[in-house]
Amino acid sequence: MGVLAFFGGNNGSGDLVQAVEDEPGQNFRPVQNDSIRSVKMFSVRPGAEIRVYDSADAEMDDDFCIINVKRPTPECVIGTFERSYEDEYVRVTFIRNNGLDGKVSRIRIN
Length: 110
What we know:
single chain, mainly beta, 6-stranded antiparallel β-sheet, 4-stranded antiparallel β-sheet, 10 strands
């Protein structure tokens, strides 16, 4: 099992807010609402999809970010949820409304 560690600062800095395994089917509110700004992923399985939402109900009319894991890596840092990009390990898609960093209210892992 891989691990996702969500942090209060950008680039995996600041306080660790919450850590969870990459088990599919998760849909939860973070232990601290509106405090997550980045995630460090440790050996997360290829094919995993991590979604973080500004909306507590995962509404798609507010900011959200989709992280698709393409290849395993011992550690991968998503330093902000407010940037779309792709590399050999992940594809990150950000849908902007008014900002997402520090406003995460729902997380889904599939």
